[in-house]
Design brief:
This protein has 2 helices and 8 strands. With 154 residues, it is an alpha+beta fold.
Length: 154
């Protein structure tokens, strides 16, 4: 199953690059606060994931110079992909995954790609709560905040 996830991720990055060539910024409002651009982009993401996997969580929020943090319980022996993507304002989005060990959050994995999307894959050895940290390494010129989408799929 993990091999299928890896293939799906590479296939998806190609399709995601094509989807990003669409100018979703035109869907934004005059104040730059509309969720329409990220929701439109998310349709491509959802369609690709649902062909091969089950989406168990979807989230949309704002990310700025500080990280956005969310939590999800991941279950033992299930292959997961945690995928985050930024809107038209994001040049490089990063994701880090942590789990609790001795009452401290310990980093399990992180994304190192220089893209407006990021993913980590995991197959937990035990069921437990994970912390997902989404941050923007680089915005496009003129922006200091953006919307992101997060999908957790198995």
């Amino acid at each position: 199953m993990m091999k299928q996830i890896i293939i799906l991720v590479w296939m998806f990055f190609g399709l995601f690059a094509q989807a990003q060539s669409t100018d979703y910024s035109k869907l934004d409002n005059a104040k730059g606060t509309s969720m329409k651009p990220i929701l439109a982009l998310s349709e491509t993401v959802r369609e690709v994931f649902e062909e091969k996997m089950e989406i168990v969580r979807m989230e949309f929020d704002i990310v700025s110079s500080s990280s956005s943090i969310t939590y999800r319980t991941l279950y033992k022996d299930i292959d997961y992909i945690v995928f985050a993507f930024g809107d038209f304002r994001v040049k490089d989005l990063d994701i880090k995954l942590f789990h609790l060990k001795n009452e401290e959050w310990v980093q399990v994995d992180k994304d190192n790609d220089e893209r407006s999307s990021a993913s980590v894959k995991i197959r937990p050895s035990e069921s437990q709560l994970y912390r997902i940290e989404i941050s923007v390494y680089e915005f496009f010129t003129g922006y200091t905040a953006a919307h992101y989408g997060l999908f957790v799929a198995r």
